[in-house]
Write a structure and sequence with these properties.
Blueprint lengths: L1 H6 L3 H26 L5 H19 L3 H22 L4 H22 L5 H8 L7 H20 L1 H9 L1 H6 L4 H23 L4 H15 L3 H26 L3 H22 L1
Helix pairs in contact: 2-7, 2-10, 2-11, 2-12, 3-4, 3-5, 3-6, 3-10, 3-11, 4-5, 4-10, 6-10, 7-10, 11-12, 11-13, 12-13
């Protein structure tokens, strides 16, 4: 306990915990809707777009996060357009956009500043290196995303289970889909700093499927997903600090441990 208390005195640990908890909650709330809609891997596709944005940021010698958010939001709408208007299945649209983005990102990074420590920090996450500016931006955008989820909760709930029935009820499905996909894009852009482009989809998927193992209602599933995500960030940051391990990977493994635990509890029932 003394070691944990000592760690809490460091500003970089405080920034990591605050930023990680808010971003983790966003991933958890959105993840429940995305998993039920079988769109959970869109986080992986948008993360690859984030890699291209990071490459562009390095090429322009600017803050990658400011480049990443608008580009990932645009790519999310492109995926939605391809699946709706171009007769391309959603998984194929995600694969198409992510493949192009990775290629562009690699070229831009190599032409710009190359494969240096900055690029690798976004590939594998560097939450302990998050700045106060990034924390403030992450908290502000996370509050907006969570607010949008609660504001359009009933509409998101309806299309998560039966999109056609939602249309019959008069719900503007296209509008709600855009809101969901744009919120996901913002969350993915922020989450890249926590666990990196290689692992961001797990931050969306694991808390959601863990909560769905044991929850007996939709609201409870969202609450449990947020709890599991928060605990994973808190435990992951401290374990990685104490054991000198990569923080992003540690957070993902803690998430997996929670999933295994809830799966065993479900089977025992």
């Amino acid at each position: 306990m003394n070691t944990i208390w000592e760690a809490l005195q460091y500003p970089f640990i405080q920034r990591a915990l605050v930023g990680g908890v808010f971003i983790g909650c966003c991933c958890a709330f959105l993840g429940v809707f995305l998993v039920l809609r079988r769109l959970s891997l869109i986080g992986d596709g948008l993360a690859h777009v984030g890699l291209a944005a990071v490459g562009l940021g390095l090429f322009l010698n600017t803050q990658p996060l400011w480049v990443s958010i608008p580009l990932v939001m645009f790519a999310s709408l492109w995926i939605l357009w391809l699946s709706d208007k171009a007769d391309v299945y959603a998984d194929a649209a995600i694969g198409l956009v992510s493949a192009v983005s990775v290629a562009v990102g690699i070229i831009l990074a190599s032409v710009g500043r190359g494969f240096n420590i900055d690029l690798f920090s976004f590939l594998f996450g560097s939450i302990l290196a998050i700045s106060m500016h990034e924390v403030i931006l992450s908290v502000a955008l996370s509050v907006i995303v969570i607010g949008m989820v609660f504001l359009f909760y009933h509409e998101l709930f309806a299309i998560a289970f039966e999109e056609e029935y939602a249309r019959v009820l008069g719900i503007p499905v296209e509008k709600i889909n855009k809101i969901l996909i744009l919120c996901t894009a913002v969350t993915v852009s922020l989450g890249i700093r926590v666990v990196g482009t290689m692992l961001i989809s797990s931050l969306i998927i694991f808390p959601a499927i863990t909560a769905l193992q044991i929850a007996r209602g939709f609201r409870l599933a969202m609450l449990l997903a947020a709890v599991f995500s928060t605990l994973s960030v808190l435990i992951g940051v401290f374990v990685s600090y104490l054991a000198d391990l990569p923080t992003g990977a540690t957070i993902v493994l803690i998430n997996f441990a929670f999933f295994v635990l809830t799966f065993i509890i479900k089977k025992m029932r």
